[in-house]
Amino acid sequence: MNKTLIESSDIDMEQLDSSEDIKKIDPSGMYEKIYRFPEQLEEAARIGRSLKPDKKYFTGIKNIIVAGMGGSAIGGDLVRSYLADKINIPFFICRHYRLPRFVDKSSLVISSSYSGNTEETLSAFNDALKRHAKIACITTGGELCRMAGENKFLTAELPKGYPPRAALGFSFVPLLFLLSKLGFVPDVDKDITNLIAELKSFRDAYSVDTDIDDNQAKSIAGKMHGRIPIVYTGPELIDTVGTRWKGQICENAKSLAFHNQFPEFNHNELVGWNVIDNYRDRLIVIFLKDSDDYDRVAKRMSIVKRIINEQKVEVVEVNSRGTSPLIRMFSLIQIGDFASLYLAILNNIDPTPVKIIDFLKDELTK
Question: What CATH number should be reported for the domain whose range is 3-28+205-346?
Answer without folding.
Answer: 3.40.50.10490
